[in-house]
Amino acid sequence: MSVALVIFSQVHSLAQLCLAMALLGVGSALATGVPVQTLAVRRFPQGAGKILGVVFAGQSLGGVMIPLASTPLIKAFGWRGSSLVFGVTLLFLFLFVLLLQNPPCRDAARRAILS
Questions:
Q1: CA distance 110 to 71
Q2: pTM of the model as a whole
Q3: Where do the domains of the chain lie?
Q4: C-alpha torsion sign, points 35, 38, 43, 48
Q5: Contact 51, 45 (CB under 8 A)
Q6: For residue 16, which phi and psi values (nearest 5 degrees)?
Q7: From CA 105, how far away is CA 93, in angstroms rounded?
Q8: How far apart are alpha carbons 50 and 38 in whole angstroms?
C-alpha cells in the first residue's frame, strides 16, 4: 500500500493512475482482514478474542482518523504531498509490523537451540 501511495503521488498519466490504484487494491487486501487477524492471533495466542477486538477497533479508528488527518495535509501539501506523506508513514509502520511477526515462544526456542 505504501508503494502504491508513493506512485499515486507521482502520477502523470492514466496508465500510472491505473497501476497505482491496482497496487492500492492489492495492498489493501493484504493489510486488512485475514492477514491481520492471523498475525495478531499468532503473536498473542492467549486472549486471541481480546486482541482481535483491539485490531478491529484500531481498523475502525483508522477509518475515522485518516479523513481527519488528510484534510489538513491536503491543504498544506496538496494531494500529491499528502499521498507521499501517507505512503512513507505506512512504509515505516510496515517495517514495525515486520518486527512483530515472530512470536516470543519461537524466539525463545531459537535462543535455546543457539545457546
A1: 46
A2: 0.69
A3: 2-114
A4: positive
A5: no
A6: -65, -40
A7: 23
A8: 14
Amino acid letter at 94? F
Distances (CA, A) of 52 to 19, 36, 46, 55, 80: 32, 9, 11, 5, 34
The total of other beta-carbon atoms located within 10 Å of residue 87's CB is: 19
pLDDT (tens, 9 = 90+) of the chain, 115 residues, equals: 788 888 888 999 999 899 989 988 888 887 777 888 887 888 788 888 898 898 889 888 988 998 999 999 999 999 999 999 999 998 898 888 777 766 556 555 555 555 5
Report the amino acid identity of residue 34. Answer: V
- Give the DSSP letter of residue 45: -
Encoded amino acid at 80, one letter = R
Q: Give me the residue label for grid cell 545457546.
A: 115
Angle between helices 14-31 and 34-43 (to 10 degrees): 40
**Cell output for 54:** 483491539
Q: Check residue 115 and report its DSSP letter.
A: -
